[in-house]
Amino acid sequence: MLSTVKDISIVVAGLVAFITFATGVVQYVRQTRIQRIQNFVEMRRRFLEDTTFRNLLNLLATDDPALAGAQVQDRRNLVGFFEEIALMVNSGALSIQVAHYMFGYYVALVDRSENFWVNLDKPGVYWTVFRRFSARLAEREKEAGRDAPLRF
Protein backbone atom coordinates (compact mmCIF):
# COMPACT_ATOMS: atom_id res chain seq x y z
CA MET A 1 0.00 0.00 0.00
CA LEU A 2 2.76 2.46 0.94
CA SER A 3 4.62 1.51 -2.23
CA THR A 4 1.54 2.27 -4.35
CA VAL A 5 1.07 5.69 -2.72
CA LYS A 6 4.76 6.41 -3.29
CA ASP A 7 4.49 5.45 -6.98
CA ILE A 8 1.36 7.56 -7.47
CA SER A 9 3.07 10.52 -5.75
CA ILE A 10 6.06 10.22 -8.10
CA VAL A 11 3.77 10.13 -11.15
CA VAL A 12 1.74 13.12 -9.92
CA ALA A 13 4.90 15.09 -9.13
CA GLY A 14 6.24 14.28 -12.59
CA LEU A 15 3.02 15.46 -14.23
CA VAL A 16 3.01 18.68 -12.21
CA ALA A 17 6.65 19.32 -13.16
CA PHE A 18 5.93 18.66 -16.83
CA ILE A 19 2.84 20.90 -16.87
CA THR A 20 4.79 23.66 -15.10
CA PHE A 21 7.63 23.36 -17.62
CA ALA A 22 5.23 23.36 -20.59
CA THR A 23 3.40 26.40 -19.22
CA GLY A 24 6.72 28.21 -18.79
CA VAL A 25 7.71 27.47 -22.38
CA VAL A 26 4.36 28.72 -23.70
CA GLN A 27 4.66 31.92 -21.63
CA TYR A 28 8.23 32.47 -22.85
CA VAL A 29 7.15 32.12 -26.48
CA ARG A 30 4.27 34.56 -25.95
CA GLN A 31 6.47 37.12 -24.22
CA THR A 32 9.09 36.84 -26.94
CA ARG A 33 6.46 37.41 -29.63
CA ILE A 34 5.02 40.39 -27.77
CA GLN A 35 8.50 41.88 -27.34
CA ARG A 36 9.21 41.46 -31.05
CA ILE A 37 5.93 43.17 -31.93
CA GLN A 38 6.66 46.04 -29.54
CA ASN A 39 10.13 46.51 -31.03
CA PHE A 40 8.68 46.53 -34.52
CA VAL A 41 5.93 49.03 -33.63
CA GLU A 42 8.54 51.29 -32.02
CA MET A 43 10.73 51.13 -35.14
CA ARG A 44 7.77 51.79 -37.44
CA ARG A 45 6.64 54.73 -35.31
CA ARG A 46 10.17 56.15 -35.30
CA PHE A 47 10.27 55.80 -39.08
CA LEU A 48 6.92 57.46 -39.72
CA GLU A 49 7.17 60.23 -37.14
CA ASP A 50 10.67 61.46 -37.98
CA THR A 51 10.14 64.63 -40.02
CA THR A 52 13.58 64.36 -41.59
CA PHE A 53 12.80 60.85 -42.82
CA ARG A 54 9.41 61.97 -44.14
CA ASN A 55 10.99 64.86 -46.05
CA LEU A 56 13.61 62.57 -47.57
CA LEU A 57 10.96 59.99 -48.50
CA ASN A 58 8.87 62.66 -50.22
CA LEU A 59 11.89 63.65 -52.29
CA LEU A 60 12.73 60.00 -52.98
CA ALA A 61 9.29 59.36 -54.47
CA THR A 62 10.37 61.26 -57.58
CA ASP A 63 14.16 61.06 -57.09
CA ASP A 64 14.05 64.83 -56.76
CA PRO A 65 17.40 66.52 -57.49
CA ALA A 66 16.99 68.34 -54.15
CA LEU A 67 18.06 65.06 -52.52
CA ALA A 68 21.63 65.80 -53.55
CA GLY A 69 21.48 68.96 -51.44
CA ALA A 70 19.95 67.30 -48.39
CA GLN A 71 22.15 67.03 -45.32
CA VAL A 72 24.55 64.12 -45.69
CA GLN A 73 23.99 63.11 -42.05
CA ASP A 74 20.21 62.95 -42.58
CA ARG A 75 20.68 60.64 -45.54
CA ARG A 76 23.14 58.51 -43.55
CA ASN A 77 20.61 58.28 -40.74
CA LEU A 78 17.91 57.03 -43.11
CA VAL A 79 20.18 54.35 -44.57
CA GLY A 80 21.31 53.51 -41.02
CA PHE A 81 17.68 53.02 -40.02
CA PHE A 82 17.24 50.52 -42.84
CA GLU A 83 20.41 48.77 -41.68
CA GLU A 84 18.86 48.46 -38.21
CA ILE A 85 15.87 46.74 -39.83
CA ALA A 86 18.31 44.47 -41.71
CA LEU A 87 20.04 43.56 -38.44
CA MET A 88 16.66 42.73 -36.88
CA VAL A 89 15.93 40.45 -39.83
CA ASN A 90 19.39 38.86 -39.68
CA SER A 91 19.01 38.16 -35.96
CA GLY A 92 15.54 36.63 -36.40
CA ALA A 93 13.80 39.39 -34.44
CA LEU A 94 11.80 40.37 -37.54
CA SER A 95 10.74 38.19 -40.43
CA ILE A 96 11.90 39.04 -43.92
CA GLN A 97 8.26 39.02 -45.06
CA VAL A 98 7.30 41.76 -42.60
CA ALA A 99 10.43 43.79 -43.36
CA HIS A 100 9.70 43.55 -47.07
CA TYR A 101 6.05 44.46 -46.68
CA MET A 102 6.63 47.43 -44.37
CA PHE A 103 9.94 48.84 -45.62
CA GLY A 104 10.80 47.21 -48.95
CA TYR A 105 9.36 49.99 -51.08
CA TYR A 106 11.39 52.65 -49.29
CA VAL A 107 14.59 50.60 -49.36
CA ALA A 108 14.13 50.18 -53.12
CA LEU A 109 13.63 53.94 -53.55
CA VAL A 110 16.86 54.67 -51.68
CA ASP A 111 18.77 51.99 -53.55
CA ARG A 112 17.65 53.19 -56.98
CA SER A 113 18.04 56.91 -56.34
CA GLU A 114 21.09 58.54 -57.87
CA ASN A 115 20.43 61.89 -56.22
CA PHE A 116 20.25 60.34 -52.75
CA TRP A 117 23.77 58.93 -52.98
CA VAL A 118 25.50 62.15 -54.05
CA ASN A 119 28.49 62.63 -51.67
CA LEU A 120 27.86 59.19 -50.13
CA ASP A 121 30.03 56.22 -51.06
CA LYS A 122 27.30 53.72 -51.96
CA PRO A 123 29.71 50.94 -53.05
CA GLY A 124 31.85 51.53 -49.94
CA VAL A 125 32.34 49.00 -47.19
CA TYR A 126 30.17 50.94 -44.72
CA TRP A 127 26.98 50.36 -46.69
CA THR A 128 27.41 46.60 -47.12
CA VAL A 129 24.55 45.73 -44.77
CA PHE A 130 22.22 48.09 -46.65
CA ARG A 131 23.21 46.77 -50.09
CA ARG A 132 22.75 43.15 -49.03
CA PHE A 133 19.41 43.96 -47.41
CA SER A 134 18.26 45.78 -50.53
CA ALA A 135 19.27 42.83 -52.71
CA ARG A 136 17.49 40.42 -50.38
CA LEU A 137 14.32 42.52 -50.47
CA ALA A 138 14.54 42.70 -54.27
CA GLU A 139 14.56 38.88 -54.31
CA ARG A 140 11.50 38.90 -52.04
CA GLU A 141 9.82 41.25 -54.50
CA LYS A 142 9.95 38.51 -57.12
CA GLU A 143 8.27 36.06 -54.72
CA ALA A 144 5.85 38.52 -53.07
CA GLY A 145 2.69 37.14 -54.66
CA ARG A 146 3.34 33.66 -53.25
CA ASP A 147 3.79 34.65 -49.61
CA ALA A 148 1.87 33.16 -46.74
CA PRO A 149 0.14 35.59 -44.34
CA LEU A 150 2.52 37.94 -42.54
CA ARG A 151 3.67 36.79 -39.11
CA PHE A 152 6.19 38.12 -36.63
Tell me the Rg in angstroms. 24 Å
- What's the average pLDDT? 89
Residue fraction in strands:
under 5%
The DSSP helix count reads 5
Account of the protein in words:
- The model has no long low-confidence stretch (mean pLDDT 89).
- The protein has one domain (36-146).
- With 152 residues, it is mostly helical.
- It is 73% helix and 0% strand.
Quickly describe the structure.
This protein is an all-alpha fold and 152 residues long. It has one domain (36-146).
Helices and strands in order, then pairings?
Blueprint: H1 2-49, H2 51-60, H3 72-91, H4 96-112, H5 128-143
Keywords:
152 residues, 73% helix, rod-shaped, 5 helices, mainly alpha
